[in-house]
Structures are given as structure tokens and as C-alpha cells.
Give the backbone structure.
Amino acid sequence: MNTVEDLCTLIGRRITWARGEDPQSLTPDTPLLERGLIDSLAIMEIVAALDKEAGVTLPDTEIVAANFRTPKALWTAIGALTGEGRA
């Protein structure tokens, strides 16, 4: 995973989209929690996918709502963990 857009794709594959919603509408600034796109199960699926597909292990202390508000927020948290200073 090299870009925030890659992260959007990873997250988008774990969202149960409502009828008529376009999965391509997920952007770095999409409010995931506010729009009800993810719940606790989806968050855990995203965490597992990050570990399996990207080799990024989120410690329990980082699995908080603030880091899952938007894909960009999660991207920034991952950057802080990996020391890559993503923004």
C-alpha cells in the first residue's frame, strides 16, 4: 500500500454499500463513521486486512474512533506508526 487511494480501496472492499451507493465515491476525506459506512466489525476487518495485505499492524491503542473518521486520518496514523510521516 503506497498511497491513501490504495487505503481507500482497501477500506471500500470492507464496506457494505447500500443499494445505489457507488463504492468509487470513497475519497480520503469521506467521513466513514459519520456516514455510518463502517462499524466495529468493519473496523476489525480493516485492521486485519492492513496486517495481512500491507504488513501494517495497528496496536490496540491505535484502534480508536479518531483514527477511523476518514481514510486520511487512518493514513496519517499508519504513517506515524511506520515513521513515514504520511499526510
